[in-house]
Write a structure and sequence with these properties.
By secondary structure, the protein is mainly alpha-helical. The chain is built from 14 helices and 3 strands.
Length: 273
Amino acid sequence: MCRAPVLFGPPSTLARPHSRKHDLVHSDAFRWLVRYSVRHFSFGLGFPLPVAIKSVSYTHLALLIWAPNLTWQVAKGFPSLVYIANHQGSGGGLVANLVLIGVYLFFLIPLWVAGLVSLFRSVTLRPVGIACLFPLVLFLFVGKSYYAMGTVPIALAQGLMAVTGVRRPRLRTGFQIGVAVACAFQLLTFAQLTLPITPLDRIHSLGLDAKNELFADSVGWEDIAHEVESIYGKLPDSERTGTIIISAYYGVPGALQIYGDKRSCLLYTSRCV
């Protein structure tokens, strides 16, 4: 049940490339997103270290880690920022992102908050805390809420460390039992909604494609690719030459590359970013 974002039309409405350089640019979107994930985490580390740790070596190390990605961003005109900005409307906004975070971390919110507090209370670990909190706050306003979810396990792990550090034995045992129960409830409640454990042919019947867009985007691509190629193949030869298929979603060019006919001369691109 994937989206149907391909824009079809007569040759006059389809873009005609001036050269082969227009062929297949869909993978840039994924590369930008991955690079941005690395960049924002490196920025989170590089920004607080000079402030929190008065060590030239740590500061230089952080800048050294950040430098290749920053150089790439500058050279390309910060494409990741463009990508994130173009997707902020599809994320639902501040309130929707807060709701999603609250829902998906429902039973683990106390442990997550405890981990963040513990990170900020430690002078040594405070840079890691800032690295976790900065992208989370940033993506509440731009992009989508799950862009910063990679920082959540770090805070959860520190939350576990904070629990084991409680000095009073009874209180520590109570916290440990509470964490175990919360993790069990989290798994039982959200496993089907968040983990890819449901057979593809049951996703729609169970309504998972409506509850989680990632499930909706995970099926149907082979059919989309064949449909695009079928429509393109029915065009007259005179119109087919030099015609490019424009997609409003970068998943379609990816589907054409994976499931499409490798011998086809079909040109396609995405205007998503």
